[in-house]
Specification:
single chain; alpha+beta; Beta-Lactamase; OB fold (Dihydrolipoamide Acetyltransferase, E2P); 3 domains; seven-stranded antiparallel beta sheet; 11 helices
Length: 463
């Protein structure tokens, strides 16, 4: 939770070295952002170039009337609400307010100092208004939804000038399976720093809520495995069980070959489930999960290319529920039943991004894919080894890099490494068949290949 702490004051006057000066230049179309933290600069780029948020906006817009979320999300909202209410008195004593939003940035509840709440109401920092980046620009709640780490937004770091008097810190609670945001807990103060315990409050609330979600995900794994074993004894076809993100929890011998994962070895922990490395399959599984969450009786089918197959294979997906909550799908291979998935569902419709953003001090570096040799995770950070040196990736998480760039030749070879297949110089075979990749960076870095990822590496390199 080191991102949430007391920072030196941010100047609100013009100047070449102040954040406000950088903000003035940036909203006028310049890209000189000296003195701006990388995570804030990246957010500004989204607000100006992607979302086109008016920096002169004076209040948040009203949220959409209907929001699609599951009962699982209601559990998170209630849990965060309880934790927010428990610290509301202490936050109010220092003139602060606490808010909880859903995944769209809609404020669901608010507690804290009455005088500050009245000031917040002037900017629509209140229930039923939207504080996503897309609606309201850089702010604690919206920017937390866009990132995988806690965020602090102070003064002129806000995209909209009307909010430059505020300081806020937010942390998103994410689904432990899909990594999609569910809610944000945020603390805000007007014309002042956040209370010193703010970081600990946010960290504790997020950690406890994530722990609850992780336990429920493990319970869902057990239900998926039980459904798999029951269906396997009756189906007579190859079978796998996948979670809502398309990751494999368990597969029989035939399905394991088709998906390129270990056979009949259950992966209960959502952090170590197997990625089949088939973007169309993953996308189809995600689509099936979305449909089934809306209609529990939904069953769908499509045809997909699998590993070691020159022709598409029919697959049918049946949802599996635990106490009314969708925990994944059973995938039957060689069977075509139910609703046909939309044509092309599962394909990357618009292709992967052609640039990856790295950061060096206060500068963003736009990298072409061939410039990147490999990526390595280090806690919550991802470090890119590139032709321009070692850079921290702007977007955290190897899973995100792998899913976005899998079609562009990037492959997960270890829980800590994703490599650019085109940048492998040598493959070294070691004792008991272990593989080590020698990359073509300046250091000729040796990247280990985990046992479970070795088959995918051999297929990709045809060795």
């Amino acid at each position: 939770m080191a991102d949430v702490h007391r920072l030196d004051p941010i100047s609100r006057v013009s100047g070449t070295t102040t954040v406000y000066g950088a903000w003035e230049r940036f909203v006028q179309g310049e890209d000189d952002i000296r003195g701006v933290r990388p995570e804030v600069a990246i957010s500004w780029h989204r607000c100006r170039d992607q979302y086109r948020v008016d920096p002169g906006l004076k209040e948040a817009p009203i949220a959409v009337a209907e929001v699609d979320h599951t009962l699982e999300h209601d559990v998170v909202f209630a849990d965060l609400g309880f934790r927010a209410a428990s610290v509301a008195h202490e936050v109010a004593n220092v003139g602060g307010i606490v808010t909880v939003t859903d995944a769209t940035g809609r404020v669901l509840a608010e507690w804290g100092d009455p005088a500050t709440r009245k000031l917040a109401a002037d900017a629509n920092l209140a229930t039923w208004f939207c504080w996503s980046e897309q609606a309201t620009g850089t702010n604690g709640m919206g920017t937390a939804l866009e990132t995988h780490t806690p965020v602090m937004i102070r003064g002129a770091e806000h995209w909209c000038q009307a909010f430059h008097e505020w300081t806020c810190a937010g942390v998103a609670v994410r689904d432990v399976v899909t990594k999609d945001p569910i809610a944000v807990l945020n603390i805000s103060c007007w014309r002042g720093d956040l209370p010193s315990p703010a970081g600990a409050w946010l960290a504790n609330a997020a950690t406890r809520t994530q722990a609850t979600l992780r336990q429920r995900a493990q319970d869902g794994s057990a239900e998926l495995i039980a459904a798999f074993n029951h269906a396997r004894s009756r189906a007579g076809v190859s079978l796998a069980a996948v979670d809502p993100a398309g990751r494999v929890v368990i597969a029989d011998d035939t399905a394991s070959v088709l998906l390129g994962v270990p056979s009949c070895t259950p992966a209960k922990d959502p952090a170590v489930r197997w990625n089949p490395g088939l973007p169309e399959f993953i996308s189809a599984a995600r689509y099936a999960a979305k449909q089934a969450s809306r209609n529990p009786d939904w069953v769908g089918s499509t045809q997909l290319f699998t590993h070691l197959s020159d022709e598409p294979t029919p697959v049918t997906m049946h949802p599996v529920f635990l106490a009314g909550h969708l925990v994944g799908n059973l995938v039957f291979f060689g069977v075509s039943e139910g609703e046909q998935l939309p044509r092309g569902e599962g394909a990357h419709q618009h292709g992967p991004p052609q640039r990856i953003v790295g950061t060096r001090e206060n500068r963003m570096v736009l990298l072409r894919l061939p410039e990147i040799s490999f990526a390595e995770s280090d806690g919550n950070d991802v470090w890119l080894t590139t032709d321009q040196g070692k850079l921290r990736a702007a977007s955290g998480g190897l899973d995100k890099l792998e899913s976005e760039q899998g079609d562009a030749g990037f492959l997960r070879v270890h829980r800590r490494y994703v490599v650019n297949l085109g940048r492998i110089r040598e493959v070294e075979r070691r004792f008991k068949g272990e593989l080590v990749l020698v990359m073509d960076d300046d250091e000729n870095t040796m990247v280990p290949v985990s046992r479970r990822n070795a088959p995918a590496v051999r297929r990709a390199l045809d060795i």
